[in-house]
Amino acid sequence: MSGLLIGGTWGLLWWLNVRVARTRAGGVVAPILFGLTLLVLWEMTVRLLGVPTVILPAPTQIARAFAANTDILWADFVQTVLKGALGGWIMGCAAGVGTALLVARSDFLRRGLLPVGNFMAALPIVGTAPILVMWFGFGWESKAAVVVVMVFFPMLVNTVAGLAATDAMQRDLMRTYAATPSQTVRHLNLPAAMPFVFNGLKIASTLALIGAIVAEFFGSPTVGMGFRISTEVGRLNLPMVWAEIVVAAVAGSAWYGLIAWVERRMTFWHPSQR
Question: Among 38, 51, 100, 246, which is least packed, fewest CB within 10 Å?
């Protein structure tokens, strides 16, 4: 009986989603309705099938845990996202772009540094995070260091590829105008690299959040999203764990969306934005 009720509800909601998606407002309403559909089915499945909370809590249980612990969630958000992830993201991306400008001017650096960068990017975070925590301590600085290591080389590779995304005719035109190397970089290479740079920034935003949370598993003060997740899992307090996951998901989506919004404003001239 429970299976039939869940299946019938799923069929009704699916039909409603299809109808709404075909309307003029479907581009905005359909994603919201689809998300609500998943939550309704999740709630029904957990309640009707009697799924234990330690396996999968219901959305209403997660919402109650969220509402009852907003002060803790906010402190964890500040420690992990605003300090560790954002600080490391800014430093790592800035270093990646700066190094890429040097690499683009030097064949020696291009041939020597990029292979080393690929090697460093392949190092597992579970191996590097404990070392960096021992080096920089248990505060947010060690988490920022982990994030720098994670985002530096993806940012470097994307920026180097963007700086090289010019054709021979464009370079010949700059030489015809007697442009200096710095003027060529400013007026030709950097504009051509902007879509690549923003792709790197978006990739790095996801890596930064993951890196900061995972790094907190290996040492953290008594605050932080990674610390809270590992602690509450040990206490079998799964609603609180899922509340932290919700905060991380919302923060990551907002971060990515903000970068995409800035990209549309700054690269409106690019064919990908038309």
Answer: 38
